[in-house]
């Protein structure tokens, strides 16, 4: 299976950046934190630069 992003919700500050930047992959979970709901909603490059690298608290990681 391809790499999947996951959000460490303990660290997420709900800034919404990943959701604004890559809405095909991230959304708000019921607890108000970001979650990955579709790992195939954007290219790996897009996820890497617009979510993983952009997250202010660096709480999005790849799960192999
Ligand atoms: S960019 Fe990071 S801190 Fe902001 S909502 Fe997404 S996972 Fe949470």
What key attributes describe this structure?
64 residues, Alpha-Beta Plaits, two-stranded antiparallel sheet, 2 helices, 4 strands, globular, binds iron/sulfur cluster
Characterise this structure:
The protein has two helices and four strands, in the order E-H-E-E-H-E. The chain is of the alpha+beta class. It has one domain (4-63): Alpha-Beta Plaits (2-Layer Sandwich), CATH 3.30.70.20. A hairpin with a 5-residue loop joins strand 2 (26-28) and strand 3. The protein is globular, with a radius of gyration of 10 Å. The mean pLDDT is 96. Bound molecules: iron/sulfur cluster. The site of iron/sulfur cluster has 14 residues, from helix 1. Iron/sulfur cluster (SF4) is lined by residues 7, 12-18, 34, 55-57, 59-60.
**Unreliable segments of 5+ consecutive residues:** none
Q: How would you classify the helix and strand content by structural class?
A: alpha+beta
Strand order of the largest sheet: 1-4
Beta-strand content estimate: 15-25%
**Topology-level CATH name:** Alpha-Beta Plaits
User: How many β-strand stretches?
Assistant: 4
Helix content: 10-25%
Roughly how many Å apart are the termini?
8 Å
> If you average the pLDDT, what whole number results?
96
What's the oligomerization state?
A: single chain
The CATH class designation is Alpha Beta
Rounded Rg: 10 Å
Q: What's the overall geometry?
A: globular
Helix run count = 2
Largest sheet: 2 strands, antiparallel
Topology as a string of helices (H) and strands (E): EHEEHE
Number of domains: 1
User: Which architecture does the CATH hierarchy give at level 2?
Assistant: 2-Layer Sandwich
Ligands in the model, by name, code or SMILES, are: iron/sulfur cluster
